[in-house]
Design brief:
Layout: H1 2-28, H2 42-54, H3 71-86, H4 91-112, E1 119-123, H5 128-141, H6 145-148, H7 150-155, E2 158-163, H8 170-178, E3 185-188, H9 202-214, E4 218-225, H10 237-247, E5 250-254, H11 268-271, E6 278-281, H12 283-287, E7 294-298, H13 303-309, H14 316-319, H15 323-356, E8 361-363, E9 374-378, H16 398-423, E10 430-434, E11 438-443, H17 445-452, H18 456-489, E12 493-496, E13 505-509, H19 523-537, E14 545-549, E15 556-560, H20 569-619, H21 626-635, E16 645-648, E17 653-656, H22 658-663, H23 703-721, H24 740-753
Parallel strand pairs: 2-3, 2-4, 4-5, 5-6
Antiparallel strand pairs: 1-7, 6-7, 8-9, 9-11, 10-11, 12-13, 13-15, 14-15, 16-17
Length: 772
């Protein structure tokens, strides 16, 4: 009995174990594929990472797969691998090594950027350092903050002052990280009367500080810019430092111009940043180092408060963040660091000097020439020098006209920036929209030159490309108003005012069934515009045509691109109107023809049915019986005529086929009407593209050849404009059609030989030799 019980228990345990294994296999089916089984090998993992990095090469064959990093970049990437390896050391060795790395990197950065006796905090997010500094300032000014917390802040609210030119989202990030309400932020406006419009207004700032103190608030911290995020202008840091010392505020400085502190010559405004309480540096993009942390240098004597604020840490692993920068600085050396920053500043100076020689280009720079950021834009000529009349002279239309010109220039600058970026990709240009100046193009080599490898030749190419695009911009700008007037004066066309389109203009054809009050989709209009776009692109002109949604609407329209040469706007508008009208009439003719054919088929079926009934009545019932009908037809055959129906598409009528079977000739019908054409047909010289004005004075032809071709063109127009000699003599019989062709040939021969017929009243014109 005991033996049997043991075997039974063993069987139950085995069955329970198999059940658990099966359940485990079923539950493992929910795990993604790569984690199933015994894992992947190293080659498969590397291949997977490579595919994820490069993606599908067939989708974007022209884009670079990965950034080209130099040997210094490999050193920085090696630092991350070494950091993971060093973290496995024992605690004592790890503590000594991390302390050495942190102290060396801090000392080197303070010496290079002239910030003596400072401490360093390394962080991945650029704004994280400023958030830690704000927390340190709160702990320094509110002694009971650790104990009482928010109650201390509630009794005396802190105020953080930011410039209106600060990078977007900075204030919101600080409030989210510190847990402060948005009223704790105070945006200081920039100068409006004197100085740069991107510098903080110091007088207005002092007024704001006094007002906050009167309201019972505590001015806590001021964020100044040594190179604003948009145009690279530097605040008056020296004056701001005096103001902060007067009211006991913390001064923090950030910006791209802080990189120039490593050079031998530094401007006074940037040099004043060395006296601030803290600054944030971004050596990664400055030196072309990937995956290198940002650094916040600060001065503070209480290590306990810095530990509470999070600027220092007792964990050795946190200190390993400085390892990639520690290796990279040693690899570059002081000369390499200075050389890269100096090269970026020289590129900016080179671009400024080149753009100053280019007309219609305005450079937005501050008074000093040391700013490594160049911001420029294409500007419109003054109304007095513009040959195209503007509507700005009317007082009532002045604001709208000025706004329209502003949007027009913004669209052209946006197009210019995109073109320059495509032509010179190593320049690292960015297109931005400023509140006062509008759309501008920014060149910031300190942030891009070391990464993209920008050289002086690239800057020269950038200037040459900008100069080559100026004729297109000026020509397009001059033709926009003329195009609007021509479209407005042409029946059936509607000018669409889209300020964001950088071209000659936008036009829409209004067909007969177009509901102008509705903004819904118009299927008939879309078909007409799609066919019109196809016809315009087949002309092989220098203009580009696109179809897109209308501004603030859903109806289709034609977008006309930039003009690189003098375009005949009247011919362009007339071609669009005539072509659209032809497409509409052809489509309407096809629809009418379809309806007529359908009705004609129905009518033909009815008539044929009636004809069959009449035939039955004529022949009788007996002839329809199979055997009897054959006998009757043999004795007395029926002489039945073949009756059918033919449909005339031109006349839209149903006719009998009796005439066809009797005379063995099919009727000709009515001649179809001619398709409407333009009111004028312009003859072009050989090689002249559509929508081009006369080629007189062109560089492609010599003076004598261009003059002779123009004279030939005028004489040919006179010949084509003369009346035809097909009017017969009074009282004489009309010649038959068979004799008209020889007569026309005789008249043509007489014209070429210089003779004049008696019945031809046209003046004799000698045909040029080139046209013969």
């Amino acid at each position: 009995m005991g033996k049997n019980l043991k075997e039974a228990m063993k069987m139950l345990e085995d069955s329970q174990r198999r059940t658990e294994e099966e359940n485990g296999k079923k539950s493992s089916g929910d795990i993604p594929g790569p984690l199933q089984g015994s894992g992947q090998d190293m080659v498969s993992l590397l291949q997977l990472v490579q595919n994820l990095m490069h993606g599908d090469e067939d989708e974007e064959p022209q884009s670079a797969r990965i950034q080209n990093i130099g040997e210094q970049g490999h050193i920085a990437l090696l630092g991350h691998s070494l950091g993971a390896y060093i973290s496995t050391l024992d605690k004592e060795k790890l503590r000594k090594l991390t302390t050495r790395i942190l102290s060396d990197t801090t000392l080197w950065l303070c010496r290079i950027f002239r910030y003596e006796n400072g401490c360093a905090y390394f962080h991945e997010e650029e704004r994280e350092g400023l958030a830690k500094i704000c927390r340190l300032a709160i702990h320094s000014r509110y002694e009971d903050f650790v104990v009482d917390g928010f109650n201390v802040l509630y009794n005396k609210k802190p105020v953080i002052y930011l410039s209106a030119a600060a990078r977007p989202g900075l204030g919101q990030y600080l409030c989210n990280q510190l847990g402060l309400p948005f009223p704790c932020l105070c945006r200081v406006p920039c100068n409006t009367m004197f100085g740069s419009q991107h510098q903080m207004d110091v007088a207005f700032l002092e007024k704001l500080i006094k007002d906050d103190i009167e309201r019972g608030k505590l001015p806590l911290l001021l964020v100044a810019n040594a190179g604003t995020a948009a145009v690279g202008h530097t605040d008056k840091i020296g004056r701001l430092k005096e103001l902060c010392e007067q009211y006991g505020m913390w001064l923090h400085v950030e910006g791209v111009n802080l990189a120039t502190l490593a050079l031998g010559y530094v401007s006074s405004s940037v040099l004043a940043a060395t006296k601030c309480d803290s600054m944030t540096l971004t050596p990664g993009p400055w030196l072309g180092l990937p995956a290198v942390p940002a650094v916040t240098l600060y001065k503070h004597d209480d290590p306990a408060l810095t530990l509470v604020a999070g600027l220092t840490s007792n964990k050795p692993v946190d200190k390993l963040r400085a390892l990639p920068l520690w290796l990279s600085l040693q690899y570059l050396g002081l000369d390499g660091i200075v050389e890269r920053i100096k090269h970026a500043c020289q590129l900016s100076q080179r671009l400024q000097e080149g753009l100053k020689k280019v007309n219609h280009i305005k450079i937005l720079v501050e008074d000093e020439l040391s700013s490594p950021v160049v911001v420029f834009r294409f500007f419109q000529e003054l109304p007095g020098s513009d040959p195209v009349p503007r509507a700005v002279s009317m007082p009532s239309a002045a604001p709208s006209a000025v706004g329209r010109e502003r949007h027009c220039c913004d669209a052209l600058n946006r197009w210019l920036g995109e073109q320059l970026r495509q032509l010179v990709p190593t320049s690292g240009l960015t297109v931005m929209d400023l509140e006062v100046e509008g759309v501008c193009i920014r060149f910031s080599p300190l942030m891009t030159a070391a990464v993209l490898g920008t050289r002086g030749e690239d800057v020269d190419q950038l200037v040459a490309c900008a100069q080559s695009k100026l004729p297109v911009l000026t020509c397009t700008l001059q033709l926009r108003e003329e195009f609007k007037q021509e479209v407005t004066a042409t029946a059936g066309l509607l000018h669409v005012d889209d300020p964001n389109w950088p071209g000659i203009g936008v036009v829409r054809y209004e067909h007969a069934n177009d509901d102008k009050s509705s903004l819904k989709l118009d299927p008939e209009g879309e078909k007409i515009h799609a066919a019109l776009l196809k016809k315009l692109n087949e002309l092989e002109s220098d203009l580009t045509f696109k179809m897109g949604p209308e501004y603030k609407s859903m109806k289709s329209c034609i977008y006309i691109g930039m003009a690189s040469d003098d375009v005949d706007i009247s011919e362009l508008v007339e071609t669009i109107a005539v072509t659209a009208r032809e497409i509409e009439e052809n489509s309407r003719l096809l629809e009418n023809m379809t309806e007529v054919v359908r009705k004609g088929i129905q009518e033909a079926q009815v008539q044929l049915q009636k004809a069959n009934e009449e035939r039955l009545l004529e022949e009788g019932v007996l002839r329809q019986i199979p055997v009897v009908g054959s006998v009757l037809n043999w004795f007395s055959p029926v002489q039945a005529s073949q009756k059918g129906r033919t449909f005339n598409l031109t006349a839209g009528s149903l006719e009998s086929t009796e005439h066809t079977y009797v005379y063995k000739v099919q009727g000709t019908g009515v001649t179809p009407p001619q398709t409407p054409t333009g009111t004028r047909t312009k003859q072009r010289l050989p090689g002249q593209k559509p929508f081009r004005r006369s080629l007189r004075g062109s560089d492609a032809l010599s003076e004598t050849s261009s003059v002779s071709h123009s004279e030939d063109l005028e004489k040919a127009e006179q010949l084509s404009g003369a009346p035809e000699p097909d009017t017969p003599e009074p009282g004489g019989p009309e010649p038959p059609p068979s004799t008209r062709a020889p007569q026309d040939a005789e008249q043509t021969g007489a014209l070429q030989s210089g003779a004049q017929r008696p019945e031809d009243n046209r003046p004799q014109v000698e045909e040029p030799e080139s046209l013969r």
